Amino acid sequence: MNPQPASPDNSHSSLWKLFRTSTFRLSALYLIVFILSAGAILGHIYWNTAGLLERQTDDTIIAEVQGLADQYRIRGVTGVLDTIHRRSRDDTGSIYLLTTPEGVRAAGNLVSVPDEVAVENSGWTEFPFNVKTSTGMEPHRARAYYTALPGGNVLVVGRDIETMRQFATIIRTTLITSILIALALGIGGGLLTSRNFLRRVDAITGASRSIMRGDLSGRMPVKGTGDELDRLAQSLNQMLDQIERLMRGMQEVSSNVAHDLRTPLTRIKARAESALRSGAEGDFKAALERTIDESDRLLQTFNALLSIAKAESGQPREGLQPIDAAIILNEVAELYGPFAEDLGGSLTTDIEGSLDIRANRQLLAQAISNLVDNALKYGESPASGAPEIRLTGRNDGHDVVITIADRGRGIEPKDREHVLQRFVRLDESRSKPGNGLGLSLVAGVMKLHGGQVLLEDNAPGLLVKLILPRLVAEEAAG
Predict the structure, then answer these.
(1) Cβ–Cβ < 8 Å for 141, 129
(2) What is the rounded distance in angstroms from the CA atom of residue 404 to the CA atom of residue 379?
(3) What whole-number distance in Å separates Cα of residue 58 and Cα of residue 125?
(4) 437-456, pLDDT tens digit by residue?
(5) CA–CA separation, 336 vs 390, rounded Å?
(6) Helix, strand, coil % (nearest 5) of the chain?
(7) At 279, which helix (H) or strand (E)?
(8) Domains located in the chain, CATH noted
(9) Do the Cβ atoms of 409 and 324 come closer than 8 Å?
């Protein structure tokens, strides 16, 4: 199938779009400034050059008039006639005319007194005259000074200014031509630049519309030129990558929530139906107690999800206050120490006196509690069969570093990034109660506080390291 030619309306619309682009407007503004600047420079050159030539011509004519006047005073009319005869024979572009008091030509290379000359006065004039050349008579223009001598004779002295007029015409023509060429090249260059710019903007617009229609895999085109449009496209692509990750995470969370809720809800329904079928009061009471337990676990899951969502959204960031993390660590150790002892293990601490940070106290305490709780569940030492946990806090340059270490099986390096996602539980942890949200909450809290969570090998066991920005003394005092 042959492509259909663009309609005149479409062509007109595309051309109008080019004229409306910011690139063309900037090009037009620059063109106007350039033309005005160039015109001012060339105009200045023209007026100064033309003025200089006119002054030189007038000075030459005045000098000759004064010389002839001197000849008249010294030798009378005879001296003037001799001088004019001699100078008229030279083709220097000078014009001379001496007339008798009756107006008859006495000497000179000008045939008659021009009509522009008022004999009764003296002054400057310009007039046309013909010059004989090899091709015939050519019209020229002369500038002359005329004056009446004391005896009634009229003296006209001038110069052929046709060459000067041609030079001025060339300058004017050059000025106009240069402006027209600059205008044409400027408009053409502006349209070409606008076309390329508009083409890239249209490509970005098309990609944006594709993404708005639901194709989250679409990305802004990057030409590789490194210009501002490439930088903008790269920033937008990074934003789209983040949005796609968040959307994918939301889909996974929705799927995992549905999966994790289906089992307890199914158990609740089965127990209720079983109790109804039996009709025994004891079965009713047992079913209600188990339903309450399942409801508590469901509420814990939802509360964890809400805490993670709040932490990752950054909404509580404005509520960050200067606190001493050492106090939180000591409180957590005091709370969980008896649990470790009941399991036959231990929870030891090594905490510096002051760990000043800016944080949300509740979220940070919950994150540290989750890590200690995980260490109690999964940190049994193979040697003793009981959890051995070490909780430390120290200042390290501009950071505060909190570590929770156990002596359990640990986590393989390939799984350490994976377990920070929601609802992720490794095979060896599925026999223990939990919802796979503890480490995800810790990662969200660290993101909120501008910190890091690192999972490292404790040889044996797992060492979780929380790195938070340290609060400087001046900021803490403020």
Answers:
(1) yes
(2) 11
(3) 11
(4) 668 778 888 888 889 999 99
(5) 12
(6) 60, 20, 25
(7) none
(8) 8-215 (no CATH), 228-311 (1.10.287.130), 317-477 (3.30.565.10)
(9) no
Phi, psi of 211 (to 5 degrees): -70, -40
Two tokens at 68? Answer: 């002839």
Bridge partner list, 390:
348, 405
φ and ψ at residue 392, rounded to 5 degrees: -130, 155
Does the pTM of the predicted model rise above 0.70? Answer: no
What is the mean pLDDT for each group of 10 consecutive residues in the chain (478 residues)?
A: 48 58 71 79 81 88 87 84 84 84 83 72 82 77 86 86 84 82 79 73 79 76 76 83 73 60 74 77 77 75 64 59 92 90 90 88 86 86 84 92 90 77 53 59 82 89 92 56
Report residue 459: phi and psi, to 5°.
50, 75
346 Cβ neighbours under 8 A, 6+ residues apart: 340, 386, 387, 388, 389
The widest CA-to-CA distance across the chain, in whole angstroms, is 159
Name the β-bridge partners of 191: none
User: Which residue type, as a one-letter code, is found at position 183?
Assistant: L
